[in-house]
Amino acid sequence: MGFKTADEAAINAEIENLKxxxxxxxxxxxxxxxxxxxxPLVPIRKGVCYGCFVRFPTARLAEIAENQPATCDNxxxxxxxxx
Length: 83
What we know:
Layout: H1 8-19, H2 24-34, E1 41-45, E2 48-49, H3 58-63, E3 70-71, E4 78-82
Parallel strand pairs: 1-4
Antiparallel strand pairs: 1-2, 3-4
């Protein structure tokens, strides 16, 4: 996963450090979605949510900013854009 150590305690400590850098409401939202899905964060590619494979209307795609958190209206997963 990109970590240079096999020490589980060190990995967990690094995860906790990274969690502190995430906006708390966004982290809570992510953790709630992660409890429901194995892949809580999925890409939007060619207008399609790669979690549930539903195509977004063009107007909805225009609303989703590249650097702002967004959720799929169908499955509720967090989305990121792949151009």
